[in-house]
Amino acid sequence: MTEALLAHWPEYAIEGALLGLFMVSACLFVVLLEHVGSPLRRRLSSPLMRRALIGLAMGVTAVLLIRSPWGRTSGAHMNPAVTLAFWTLGKVEGVDAFFYVMSQCLGGIGGVLLSRLVLGRGVAHPSVHFAATVPGDRGPLLAWLAEFGISFLMLTVVLIASNTRSLAAYTPFFAGALLVLYITFEAPLSGMSLNPARTLGSAVPARDFRGFWIYCTAPVLAMLISAAGFAAIAGKEHVLCAKLCHGSKERCIFHCRFHEARNPAETSLR
User: Fold this and answer.
1) Contact between residue 32 and residue 40 where contact means Cβ atoms under 8 Å apart
2) For the chain, is the Cβ count within 10 Å smaller at the N or the C terminus?
3) Alpha carbon of residue 108 to chain centroid
4) Which of 117, 57, 103 lies closest to 200, judged by CA?
């Protein structure tokens, strides 16, 4: 464990920083579009339109982070459920998965605390509530089912796209597009988390753990089932790497076979 920490700490730190930046962006755009004192909220009376704009902002944020040099280095999981899914697929060592999850949780909390420091009281206002994800008015069961569904679809799309030669380069855009749709249409059901560390990041400063079990179980279970299904249908050997966007200049700490994608004679990409 010590050896892995000394060797791979940059990737661990980047994972935390990426989710932290994602949370700063989330808090910023929720303040701009949902705070009762915001001019944008007064101009946009439609909750659907406001969610669509928040979704667009977060989708763009995700694409930029995944495609950034940092994202190409760590793989830009930003999500314990994603990391654990790739671990079950044999792409991530157990010790790396452990430190990734720890870093993601700390990064999520740190990003919201930084947002509170930079953006001030607006982040804590009830209309913003630290961008917390809590079950909607239709109850926890529907929230759990919604989180399961969106999480399953997200990883399934990522696995198919990232392991298909003609689609691999567009994986970040597929993920970003799904975020836009999820925030626009699914958020009223569960708050749209997909991510235990993202929910924890808001829950700690908000001191609001309503339905926290939903976000710790549904995304993880859904992505593990998605990974198992992909492995059963396509085979684990068809998963080249755990990175969502693979560069050629950054080192890779995973069990990586991405170089095979450049050689059609060897590649397992379709």
Assistant:
1) yes
2) N
3) 11
4) 103
Structure-block tokens of residue 38: 């915001």
Sorted by where each starts, the structural domains of the chain and their CATH numbers stand as: 2-262 (1.20.1080.10)
| pLDDT confidence of residue 38 | 95
Tens-place pLDDT, residues 239-257: 999 999 998 889 999 999 8
Tokens of 33: 């579009």
Exposed, middle or buried, 36 (CB in 10 Å: 0-12/13-18/19+)? exposed
155: number of CA atoms within 13 Å, CB side?
Answer: 34
Nearest to 195 by CA among 205, 182, 208: 182
Q: Any idea what DSSP says for residue 185?
A: I
Q: Tell me the C-alpha to C-alpha distance, in Å, between residue 152 and each of 47, 81, 132, 183.
A: 26, 10, 21, 16
CA distances from 65 to 22, 23, 76, 141 (A): 8, 12, 7, 32
Q: Comparing C-alpha atoms, which of 72, 119, 85 is closest to residue 194?
A: 85
pLDDT (tens digit per residue) in 147-166: 999 999 999 999 999 999 89
Cα 44 to the center of its chain, rounded Å: 27
Q: Full-prediction pTM beyond 0.70?
A: yes
φ, ψ of residue 75 in degrees (nearest 5): 100, -10
